[in-house]
Amino acid sequence: MEKKMVVFVGLMFFVFSMFSSCVSRPRYSDYMGLPKEAAMDEIHSDKTKNTVKLVCNWVLWGWTTAWISSVVDTFVYIGSVGEFKKIETRILSTEASQSASPVAPANQVAPASPVNQVSRTQGATGGIEGAVNRACETLIYELPKKATVAVLSVSSRDRNAASFVMDEIEFQLVDSKEFQMVDRKTLDSVRSEQDFQMSGDVSDASAVSIGSMLGANVVITGTISGSGDTQRLIIKALDVKTAKILTMAREQF
């Protein structure tokens, strides 16, 4: 009886070890919003932690029957090295593009822009346009490639702002050539049938249900809150099959 119990415990431990990994995989959103130096320091720290975890795993379990756990961690570690490099490249390229933006001299007054036009003096990094661009970076990087995506709604008191955000997200996802987008006519038809407003609030359950009707794998919703210079854009991507949040982006403008 005792022998059977030992074998059972050993087997359970072996199975647990097979599906466990102490090495973490990085996500670009973990470093968004940090200054370049701080983000690079954080990445270096996380890479060091992963290396220490992998070494400890092999020292503790590599010589036992749970060696498969060490093998799993090794593969995860190899994958994380490539992901860290991609994140570093994106951070450096974003910093370079921001530095390349023209800055007016301190004693020069910029010409006034039309009231109804998005201010281009802010470039791709300022205002609602910059917030959408940064949010789309997260979506493009973290959403499953080749997924069928539906941009459902953005809740806002300003219908024009909601429409702008939705159009821009859809454009950038299409431009990335990484996803299949739900046809706008199909989306409008379902909206009409469900009495669903693109600028109104929508629950996660409703979003997932509508996404299923559309044949989408991923649905995207968002909100614009605040006023004046303290507004916030939140974009959320949901897995239609599991109703789980795949990723979120939160940007101030």
The CATH topology of the largest domain corresponds to Rossmann fold
The fraction of residues assigned to DSSP E strands is 15-25%
- At CATH's second level, what is the architecture of the largest domain? 3-Layer(aba) Sandwich
Shape: globular
Main beta-sheet strand count, sense and barrel state:
5 strands, mixed
- The gyration radius over C-alpha positions equals 23 Å
What are the defining features of this structure?
253 residues, alpha/beta, 5-stranded mixed beta sheet
Task: Describe this entry's structure for a reader.
By secondary structure, the chain is of the alpha/beta class. The chain has two domains: 2-99, no CATH class; 124-252, Rossmann fold (3-Layer(aba) Sandwich). The chain has helices at residues 2-18, 36-61, 67-100, 127-142, 159-176, 184-193, 204-214; strands at 148-155, 180-181, 218-227, 230-239, 245-252. The protein has a five-stranded mixed sheet with strand order 2-1-3-4-5, sandwiched between helices. β4 (230-239) and β5 (245-252) form a beta hairpin. α2 (36-61) runs antiparallel to α3 and α4 (127-142) packs across α5 (159-176). The protein is globular.
